[in-house]
Write a structure and sequence with these properties.
mainly alpha; 8 strands
Length: about 325
């Protein structure tokens, strides 16, 4: 069955300037402590549908905060919220709980940047189309982070996955080059051996497994990892990388340095060292910021909005680099 959902926010936080006091002040009745989000489904939807909506909202808030967004309470109502009953359900959140109050200037996504009527559909679309890109960003803040190597591997893998969605890419060889070479090898006659004698192609590739391996190699025209990373950096743009406090060439070099060792040995170092995690932390943070921008880009954000989002991510990244 299909459902339509209306989303509304109640008891939102309100801030005003008090001429008698310095700075902004919370309005006593609207501090944000009682804020809640209402999902109203037509026709009335079972709890599993509301769980799905709640999951996506929690992911959206986590992405916006780039931090934890635990659920304080949950209710279900058949008609009016006055008759709602509490849902006894454990939140899967076990990450770092938010500290203090979050302000819009520190949020990657807000309803000031994109109207709710556009924001929610765009978010649901990238949740579906870019899977598991959003989850990799969201779950990093939502749960226990585990091994840093695992987090880095997931971030790089998602970046490579998104690379295939940004448009035409360079390949190692011109179109048709490998197909022609494969055909030429199949019809080749004799080959010279190192000892000066000759061997035929049939003798050279007499082993079926080796012959299969050889022909499979002609199908591998994927761009090199450096090329893919360069194209990702180009998609973010050099201007936006600067706003993110990321040196594009340095990021590419760092990813190349750790990616294969992590993928093949689950570690980027051969032995423990005092500074062995610093490079991983830098790659992890920078790659996640780049992935976040690519997700926002797929949501249809304007160039100005993308710049604002990059500034927010860049402030957080700048603080990290100063630590």
């Amino acid at each position: 069955m299909e459902y339509s959902a209306k989303v509304r926010f109640e008891n939102l936080r309100r801030i005003e300037e008090d001429p008698e006091l310095e700075g902004a002040q919370f309005i006593a009745d609207h501090t944000g402590d009682q804020v809640r989000v209402i999902f109203e489904c037509t026709p009335p939807a079972p709890p599993r549908v509301h769980d799905h909506l709640l999951h996506d909202l929690q992911a959206l808030l986590t992405f916006s905060y780039q931090g934890g967004a635990p659920i304080e309470a949950q209710w279900l109502a058949l008609q009016k919220m006055e008759s709602a009953f509490p849902v006894m359900q454990r939140d899967s959140f076990n990450g770092d709980r938010p500290f203090g109050r979050e302000f819009s200037m520190n949020m990657v996504l807000t309803t000031e940047l994109m109207e709710p009527a556009e924001l929610f559909p765009a978010w649901w679309k990238v949740m579906e189309d870019l899977y598991p890109a959003v989850e990799v960003i969201y779950l990093y803040h939502h749960g226990s982070r585990g091994l840093l190597e695992s987090s880095v591997a997931a971030a790089i893998a998602v970046a490579e996955h998104l690379h295939g969605m940004i448009g035409p890419t360079k390949t190692r060889f011109p179109t048709g080059f490998l197909a022609n070479k494969k055909l030429a090898v199949k019809h080749a006659g004799k080959f010279a051996k190192q000892d000066g004698s000759e061997t035929t192609l049939q003798e050279f590739v007499a082993e079926p497994a080796f012959r299969e391996f050889l022909y499979e190699a002609f199908n591998n025209d994927r761009p090199a990892l450096r090329t893919r990373l360069e194209e990702l950096a180009d998609a973010v743009t050099s201007k936006r990388l600067a706003l993110l406090n990321i040196d594009g060439e340095q990021w590419i070099g760092s990813v190349l340095r750790v990616r294969n060792p992590i993928a093949h040995t689950s570690s980027h170092v051969k032995r423990r060292g005092d500074d062995s995690s610093n490079l991983l932390r830098q790659v992890n943070t920078a790659t996640r910021a780049i992935v976040s921008i690519l997700i926002l880009k797929r949501m249809g954000m304007s160039e100005d909005v993308l710049d604002k989002c990059a500034r927010v991510l860049g402030r957080a990244l700048g603080k990290f680099l100063q630590e």
